[in-house]
Amino acid sequence: MNETNETQVVRPLAAVAKGLAEDLRRQGYGPRTISEHRKLLRDLSDWLVRRQLTASDLSMAQVDRFLSDRRSAGARHKTRNGLDPILGYLRGLGLEIEPAAETSGEDGPAAEILNRYRRHLTTERGLATATADRYVDCLCPFMDRRMSADGLDLVSLSPADVTSFVVAWCPNLNTGVAKLTVTALRSFLGFLHLDGITERSLVHAVPKVSRRRLAGLPKGLEPDQVRRLLAACDADTAVGCRDLAILTLLVRLGLRRGEIAGLRLDDIDWRAGTISVRGKGNCHERLPLPPDVGRRLAEYLRHARPADAQGRTVFVRHFAPHHALGASRVSGIVADAARRAGLGCVHAHLLRHTAATELLRAGASLPEIGQLLRHRRAGTTAIYAKVDRDSLRLIARPWPEGAL
């Protein structure tokens, strides 16, 4: 008999099933989810057998074909996200899963220079990766204009070329994006000169974006709104306890969302009553830890932070895998709590303004507010003088008598 017994077929990934289950269990996945991922691993292994492929042949292109077949069959787990835990475990075992071929134009001289510039921002200038990516995104239109049939031309760049780009491009953008574009362009032109691509610095050729300094009025939540926001978190649940600690840090210390996400267990000095914050430009600042903030943090760490959380970050995901929260999720926590409290759309940065205005109400001076918010320039804090109504009354001129 030459018939092949199906039970004798060796699945290429069968040997890793037990290890995958143990790895998922360590990450906090429940038994049902682990069982589903083991079945998905078996399906992937069977698919490789039908295609006469081995585990070493697995690539992202093959993964996409596997998922396409599952979508055609109406099966569950039809996206890359569903396979992420399996692929992550396989990569951890040393299996090199080749990425799918890119056809989005990421190669070429423009991409090469922008990648060098991105590394310069993150390593030499200390900018966060997300900020460096935003700079690069703003520079793409400028780089497109320097492309021609002969390739990328930055060597012959002149001040007139720089000015004409800003004049033509920035009026189509809102003020915030236009300001970021000219900031990124000045930084990039400085890098080109530093890198030896241009003979002279063209930074001064970038026009300024017209704006009135301190024209806006910083908006913060009223004390009653703050109470409603905090009350929208159920401290008796693990998620609510975590979210309440995050909101308390934002409201009381005026931290940025990225600083919340980057906070580590080693940054809290319980004996000294201080907290170390990683701010902009990779600067480390030490702030006092108020008793109410410390109490919320302690409650979260003792009762709500998952025991199998990965890494040393303070705030982690509640659902598996329990890795660090991202800055965008911190914003989502603020928005969700504000919606439950009936406050409408509230961004995380609004709570930073709230902290500053609360300090003003308590009688703090502008230098003290600037120190808490870690402003590098006094002018940045000056905008809060506009909401210090008591001090403004002292310098207000009386209304002329008899004026209509």
Report on the structure:
The chain is mainly alpha-helical and 404 residues long. It folds into three domains: 10-92; 109-205, DNA polymerase, domain 1; 223-391, hpI Integrase, Chain A. Helix content is 52%, strand content 4%. The chain is built from 17 helices and five strands. It has helices at residues 17-26, 31-50, 60-73, 80-92, 109-124, 129-145, 159-169, 175-194, 223-231, 238-253, 257-261, 291-303, 327-340, 348-361, 366-373, 378-381, 389-395; strands spanning 147-148, 151-152, 268-269, 274-278, 284-288. The strands form two sheets. A three-stranded antiparallel beta sheet has the order 3-4-5, with no helix packed on it. Strands 1-2 form a two-stranded antiparallel ribbon. Helix 5 (109-124) packs antiparallel against helix 6 (129-145) and helix 10 (238-253) packs antiparallel against helix 12. It is flat, with a radius of gyration of 28 Å. Mean pLDDT is 82; it is low at 1-8, 100-106 and 392-396.
Can you summarize this structure?
This protein has about 400 residues and is mainly α.
